[in-house]
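We both want to read discrete structure tokens more fluently, so let's practise on a single case. Once you have written the record down, we can walk along the chain together.
***
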Amino acid sequence: MSEYKPPTWANRLLEKICPDDLLEEIQGDLFEAFEWRSEIKSLRYARRKFCLEVFMVLIFYKPNLMKTPRPSLLKNYLVTGLRNLQKNKSYVIINTFGLGIALACCVSAYLFVAYNIEFDDFHADSKVNKIYSIHSHLLKTERGTYECISAPINLAPNAAADLSGIKRFTRFNNEQGYVRYGDHTFNESISFADSSFFDMFDFPLIQGSHESFKNVHSVFISQKMAEKYFRDENPIGKVLLMNFPNQTEIQAVVGGVLKKVPTNSTFVFDMLLREEHFMEIHALGADDWKDWRDPSTYFELTSHDQASVINEQFDKYIKRRNKERTDRVVLSYKLEHFKANFGQDDVRWSQVNLRMSIIPLIVFMTMALMILLIACFNMTNTSIAMTARRMKEVGIRKVIGASKWQVVTQFLLETVLVTVGSLFVGIAMSYIIVPVFADMWELNYGLEDLSGLNMFLTLLFLIFFTSLLAGIYPALFSSKFRPVVLLKGGVKIKGSNLLTRGLISVQFALSVIVLIAGVIFIQNTNFQEQVNFGYDKDMVFLVNVKSQKQYEVIENRLKNNTKILEVGGTAHSLGRFNYQAPVIVDTAHHEVWHYGIGKNYFDVMGLEIAEGRDLNLESTTDLEGSVVVNKAFLKKIQMSDPLMKVISVHEVKRRIVGVVEDHIDNLFVSNEPEPSVFYPATPQQYHYLLVRANSDNLLSLKNDIEEIWKSEFPDIPFQLHFQEDLLFNEIRNVNANLKTIFLFLTFLGGMLSASGIFSLATLNTEKRSKEIGIRKALGASIQNIMTLMNKEFVIVLTIAGFLGALGGYFLIGILLDEIYAYHIPVSAISVVLCALLIFIIGLSTTSITILKGAKANPVDTLRTE
């Protein structure tokens, strides 16, 4: 019996619609067919066919549910709807484009949702059905556990040899390296996997053969890499020269060129080498269980039942691993199905790609829903204004025999027509908005990567949801009156009622919220730029070096440069190039930030020694047994008089010889200094050469060093990072993107809200034109009339401003907390000013149309009586 089941909702529907005496037989047949299809074809195909067959049962046993109007009646609805829309071109244009932009925003937000929903869908279910990944559950230093999709590099081959039920395995790692072909050299991210990788997973080829990967010296490249290195040449059989850390050089023969695969895939790579090369680069032996570069590991099992059995047999590998590494304690290894739903919120570390965090999905879906609601409410308000002119038409329809639901159908069909038109506009605009949106977030994922079926169903749902939300009230309202009342003109639709006032309030409240968000993110950018990080971030840049030789050559060439204040080297650095790991104080484990630092590091960065001394890298004692900590470390450990106290860093006992002032490392992570340890790194371990200079000289120095680099290492790409950019590039990008999105939504929402309140103000003025004429005839001034007519809109806009300000204050605060640990507090003054601006826009809109009515000659407005 298959462990997969058909969709629950479809099965329940079958149980309700199928006669009791036939249910067991029909249900059994459908279940049998489902099981056969899931094994022979795929699970998705089986589920789809099961739903279709339930639908056919529904048609056969409940035909009345599927009854449709006669074609002639549908044609009448359609013709009448098109004629009415043709008479109201302004209504059609406003709503089609407003709703179209809103739907385009929904499609953009759906891009993020689809990324997760369709993750790994290009792998056939039948191929990955029995593939499982190893998840490591590790002990947190303070409390709880965390999860990684990784395992020691030697676990997989040992488990495959020792345990039954494992058909084959593959490991997956990543490493940076220089790749050269001819005169072209680039720094690339290179991935590594075992020879069985292409046997286990679907990766179609443009050129070459998957069998070539059985050759340990082969490399498979993406189409983008083939064009980058070989242009018009045939890449198959060409040799790429690769240089890695530890001066390892590998010659790899191109064995295949991969077709482009979606980026919402577990495995995202441009170059793939054999795993043996990764072990060679890092000098890893067959019994090495101590290395920290654990690969993501996958097993293909002989059957699903073996997963639980194998999980119970992992204990001996846990003991072996924990014996080799005491700094991070593994509690358990567990097999999880390849397509199990794990994302960035669930997994702390992995060598493979993961589903997106739920936070951006919620944020963007909420923003899209907000703008869609504004557009729908605008359409509802303008539809009510149109309905006021069609009461006699409805009366005549009812007199000649139309039922209430036929009238409802007519009005809803017109809404559907506008929505479908909006959808075409939205799809066209999506080809403009979606690429811009994807580029903003560096998401290499677009409309062409989406599943056609899922996209179709989503658009179908949007049509249904939008049409129902925007059109149901006007349709029901117009159909509820008796014909005699309608034909006598007894129904007088007021310019506004409780519902329309409520819709307008919600529209403007949402506009206030998005405007507050845009303004706060502008302020947040300015606030974060002024943060004191505790060192001289604007006087430092880093140059990537891959060896001690590169470091020493550049250092010697820079000694006589008068613009340079200090030169240093390091393995890790503040801002990005660091990592978290536990240290042991007495017997307690504490998670802190680690930095392997080299020559002159504190002097270059401008970190001041508060107590004790700097590390002496000429001293063997310091190299092997000393460490510097910051004040936040002492606070976390609650340590007083720290000098010469012993702590364990990476299983090495080190004495604290100095304490540096606190620094802020990452505004996303913490709103206060994080505990850190700084231990010595030798020149062989340096990854960066650091340069300190006056900020005015940094750009010219960059050019000088680049020239030196090209003269000394012409075949190696030059890479440089300004410290300020390391800290602020991502922050500036996030702030700028959200600011742009929110201000765009503010403009769009404001325009739609203004058009909605304009329609209501116009209808209100028309309905009260005789009242205005009488008031003017009795001596009322234009100012008196405008004050009177604007009174209800002032109340509506005040309520909207209050609700929007309240919602914006709390919602934007929550959003900032989710994105940043260190951010500006939401300012009450900014909130009030945003609400006031939207209030002024709304009141100005109503005043324009009321002023026109107030200036009308009373003779003209009263003449019809």
